Amino acid sequence: MKKALSVSLIFLFHAFAQGARAQQPQSATVTPVSAAQTPTQKNIEAYLRHFYAFGPDVLLVVGAPKETAVDGLLETTINLTIGENKETVKFYVSKDGKFLFRGEMSDMTKDPLAESRSQIQMKDAPSFGDPNAAVTLVEYSDFECPVCRNLHDVLRDSILPKYPGKVRVVFKDFPIEQLHPWARTAAIAGRCAYQQNPTAFWKMYDFIYDNQEIISAANAWTKMLDYAAKSELEAEAFKACMASPDAGETVNASRTNGQQLDVNSTPTVFVNGRRIVGADAHLLEQYINYELGKSADKK
Q1: Mean pLDDT within 139-154
Q2: Using one digit for the tens of pLDDT, what is the confidence trace for 195-220?
Q3: Which residue from 154, 109, 173, 178 is spatially nearest to 287, judged by alpha carbons?
Q4: 282 CB contacts (<8 Å, ≥6 apart)?
Q5: Among residues 252, 147, 143, which one has the least CA distance to residue 205?
Q6: Do 250 and 190 meet the contact criterion of CB atoms below 8 Å apart?
Q7: Residue 80: closest CA among 66, 61, 97, 99
Q8: What whole-number distance in Å separates Cα of residue 181 and Cα of residue 210?
Q9: How far apart are CA 155 and CA 205, in angstroms?
Q10: Does the domain made of 114-298 have the CATH classification 3.40.30.10?
Q11: Which pLDDT band holds residue 299 (cuts at 50, 70, 90)?
Q12: Which of 26, 28, 47, 52 is the most buried (most CB within 10 A)?
């Protein structure tokens, strides 16, 4: 067990540190942390700096340990900054300060998916399918993301035809603008379509993903107007919505909701609260079949 935990810790920090230094070769000036540290915090920082050879150019901040539901076990966060790259990770440390490990602690007296379901905000989110369906599939997606397009194709061509009336789909915007320059424009267009006619959102959804390869940052606005016309939306109202801040604020709220659920890549899908990252059709079917089986058992 100790060896396995050590390997996990090594992989986490070593991989991040190597990648960060490759992207940011110049040393960064680090501002010293002024808050007083406990002996445990100092020991954790000294241990990690020694183990991973982190010099003064690396900012490593150990959060104050907090009590957990397990006797003798404290929770802390490790904030690592190398140049412009940042990572925050939760760790556990024994109360005597001797042992440090990374992992997820689960309370087996509670439903492990209940928290995720309670955090997903579906009000005013585009959806289709029976609201009382046994399975609700919520996707956090980016219109420019190629894997999101794969998910779109899997849902449309495989999953939904296989489970007619049994799956409700909810769409949540999560544009990753650092990677995808026109994703936000498309997200705003989707919101404007939904605002004018909720059914039209799904036409825009199909048009954008089906034509993803011909959309660019330079032509995104024109393409969105074109797809809005093909979705039978009123042109002037659509343009006014695209130019107003309201749709953008809704996109921001959707992205913030994803971050609350620790969404950091797209697509991230929740099947009745159970998380999938990517567009794995077999895994989606596994989760859907499991939930449908549970529903049948209750009848």
Answers
A1: 98
A2: 999 999 999 999 999 999 999 999 99
A3: 154
A4: none
A5: 143
A6: no
A7: 61
A8: 18
A9: 12
A10: yes
A11: low
A12: 52
pLDDT digit string (tens) for 56-73? 999 999 999 999 989 999
Return the number of other C-beta atoms located less than 10 Å from residue 40's C-beta.
20
- In this predicted structure, what is the pLDDT of residue 296? 77
Annotated domain spans of the chain = 2-101, 114-298
Nearest to 5 by CA among 63, 75, 91, 107: 91
pTM surpassing 0.85?
no
CB atoms within 10 A of CB 80: 21
Query: Is residue 206 within 8 Å of residue 171, measured between CB atoms?
Result: no
What is the third-level CATH fold of 2-101?
Nuclear Transport Factor 2; Chain: A, (3.10.450)
> How many other C-beta atoms can be found within 10 angstroms of the C-beta atom of residue 133?
17
pLDDT digits (tens, 9 = 90+) for 16-58: 454 444 433 333 344 444 468 899 999 999 999 998 899 999 9
When the pLDDT of each residue in the chain is averaged and rounded to a whole number, the result is: 88
Structure tokens at 263: 């969404």
Q: What is the longest distance spanned by two Cα atoms in the chain? A: 66
Distances (CA, A) of 251 to 96, 122, 138, 178, 185: 46, 13, 15, 15, 10
> Token pair for residue 178?
């650092």
